[in-house]
Amino acid sequence: MKLCSILALALCSSFLLTAQDLQQLADSLNIQQPTAADKKIRIPRIKGIDVKLLGADYEQIINRNGNINKPLTDTSVRVSFEVGKEGKSAISRDFEIVVPGKYGSQANVQAPYVFPALLNWKGSTGELEWPEQILVYGKSAFIPEFIRELKAVLPVKRDVARTDSPEKATIIFGMEKGSDDESYSLKIDKKQVQISAAGRTGLYWGSRTVLQLASQPRGTLPCGQAWDAPRYKVRGFMLDVGRLPIPMDYLKDVVRLMAWYKMNDLQLHLNDNYIFHEHYVDAGEDPFRKSYSAFRMESDIKGADGTPLTAQDLFYTKRQFRELVKFASERGVRIVPEFDAPGHALSLTRVRPDLIYQGPMCHEKRRCEMLDAANPETMSFVGKVWDEYLQGKTPAFEDCPVVHVGSDEFFGAAEDYRKFADGLLAHIQNRQHTPRIWGSLKAKPGNTPVRAKGVQMNLWSRDWASAWDSVKAGYEVITTYDRDLYVVPFAGYYRADRNLKHLYEKWIPNQFGNETLPAGHPKLLGATFAVWNDEIDRLHKGYGACDLWHTISSMVGVLSQKMWGQPTTPLSYDAYQTASEHLGRIPYCDPLHKSDAQPFRLEPGLTPMSLRKGSRGPEYHLTMEVMMPKAPVPGEEQVLLGSRQGQLLAAGKDGRITLRRSDSIEFAFNAKLPVGKRTKLELIGRMGKTELLIDGVNAGEPENVRFPLRKDGRMSTFILPLESLGSSFNGKVFNVEVK
Asked: Are 518 and 91 in contact (CB under 8 A)?
């Protein structure tokens, strides 16, 4: 039906418009562009029809009431409306309007490169040249770290110190009035830099912008003004640490990475297991006993037979986790801990085998990981697990306002799932935390209601959830669409990291498969990508956290722009890649241990001895001569080199030369040190491969001791530990050289 006919029918009070008519009307609204004098946007008026503003993608510019907060320069904002009549309603598409800024259009002025790009920039003439001593004024707790970081990024060495006098300061951090915690203002003239914000997070984001500007090779800052604000509230990713042991030091580097790009949401998937239990079943083995599983948090819970809930290879103590949450919060990043249940819960069913699901289900060979969602005792048990971290004097998750209850890929009955999910969401809300859940209700339709008020939902699969159904039900949603945003490292599926150019140029956070929500829909919180470590156990190639860094950092860099800024990126993808080679160098973020790459040589003399050389990431070449006077006692380990990142063992428990990483993975070469002979060892470390030469002869590919079954594409990346030498080596060491 033509629009003019629909409008005519709308005027007839006796005629009922269909949902299709209302939708066409909503998508055809006549939107007037605001003028410089307007303080509110103009709501379209149609006689007989209710039209109201639904939302704007930049609420900092156009709030829920339609009030305009004038930006610095003319800014594109996308708005949508709700159109209704007699109890029926429709949500419009996005309409793009340009809100006039205080200084009008500045499109002809090139904004300085930072990632993500500045929302508003008004350039002026001249540059700030750094004085010999840079003085920083501000009351925020991050100022000392900012001073240290600024010293590190400046292309020309300068003295940087704190001052109590704003008049003498080169850089000033100060508070201003406002309600948005993340937006900030920046002013640069020839003598001073001023960063102001209404919230501490905004000030911290401003400090990231200043550091990126200061790190650029020209050594000066362009004069001008900026106003910057995020488009979406949730910008981040999920990291599966349940299946791949990832050390705490690495997680802190992940936080530093996210903060550099103004990403604010790190979800840690803290428990999981090998997915493909059928590999064991088909081999005549029991996956309940064989499949890898882990629960990464320190726990007091044990099974009746003494089985501990806590993973035995790597886990985080409650104190360590509290420190991580604090560390992240100080840098603008929210930690969202996740325990997955009733599926993906083998670590829980091993503690309570009596609570394995008993009902009919698909994927029968995967039953061992399914908790009995139909049994009230299961809810009691899972609630007890959560309460260990949500209650008590100093609960580990106390400062995590949002926690994730998992609840994906349960293969049992829909009503059992719905009852369990609703009970778990209620439990979290009763503990005064906001629950987040993987969307699953499309695949689990039923009569049992699952609460939506105050619940966040990841939209991850079109088979399991619907975007429109979810927001209509009342859920706050986060786009985590598997086909766009999933990464399973080193697998042949879910490889968003191979599609970075498309993500940079085409992807938008408000699209979920063939469903597109308005960018400013009040129920759309933002987007996250996900890194799933499916390739473990029988499929384990030997990769570790350091092998993930390029994948994670490249995804964060590309998607930060799309989650923070405008849909149209300011740089081409090629130009972004070129600029990111420099701007992606994050101070004091060194997961690959490249910062101290200077070669060194020493003649140890007596051992053991302290080297205090930290650790060295690939690429490196270690040469040393050793003499083992007698064969090691079986079961006795002898450590040649050690640090927090791992150990090089002259003899493992079986006598073989072994590499032990801090993630608990070990690689053993099919070689033992000769006894009573001075032997030259060479260890050559590259990303993905570590080689051992004994008197010039290659010792062959090392075996993954924990998961030896995988034969193709094996990896053995090893961070060289250089803190101590010969801590338990019963022999002599000569001529140590690293280059």
From this structure: yes
